[in-house]
Amino acid sequence: MGHYVDLGRWPRRAHFELFLGYDRPHFSVTTEVDVSALYAASRLPGGPPFLLGTLFSAQHAANATEALRLRLREDRVWCHETLGIGCTVLRPDRTFGFAYFPYETSFSTFAANGRAELDEARAGSTLVQAEDDAWIHTTVLPWLRITSFTNAVRRDDSVPKLTFGQRYAADGSWRMSVTLEVHHALVDGIDVGEFMERLQDRLAAPLPG
Asked: Class of the 2-204 domain?
């Protein structure tokens, strides 16, 4: 579900056409977010798993940021109505698989389905990838406090890439580094800034239902 953007009325048309011709059209921004509220909730009996709470918050922040729902369709731009979120999952043999979580408004439903999806990805031995681009892709690197990060991307890959780094204590709170890498033909710095603000707000708020 979605629609094509009317390029004739799109204020970013010139920027779209400019960056579409670049050999390296992607850029990334790394910052940190306060995860104290979610981490505290995850430590309570029956509390939400920290990873699933983070993914749910990121999914909703991305859906609220229109630029992150845009995708390249050759020389056109498609806007998805909603996005799911995908995540790398470490396997016992030190390889990784992919888990995919469809868009949900209820965290309890998201978490119930998410636990099964994570278990399946850990137990698998092949790289099953999504058949479409109605997702935001996520990498989790809990061993590193990230200060910058770039992904392996094709020139025409317009799916945003999130990377979550190590959770660490700082000044009486819990922090986590996060990188967002995007295609500049579709996304500008202001969009990344708005996404990060929305992600922080989501992480600080109770998870719905």
From this structure: alpha beta
Cβ-based neighbours of 171, under 8 Å, separated by 6 or more: none
**149 closest CA partner among 10, 4, 26, 11:** 26
Residue burial 178-206, b: 16+ Cβ < 10 Å; e: rest: bbbbbbbbbbeeebbebbbebbbebbeee
**CA nearest to 37, candidates 163, 193, 207, 203:** 203
pLDDT, tens digit, 9 for 90 and up, residues 18-35: 999 999 999 999 999 999
Where in the chain are the domains? Answer: 2-204
Tell me which residue of 153, 152, 160 sits closest to 181, measured CA to CA.
Answer: 160
For the entire predicted model, the pTM comes to 0.95
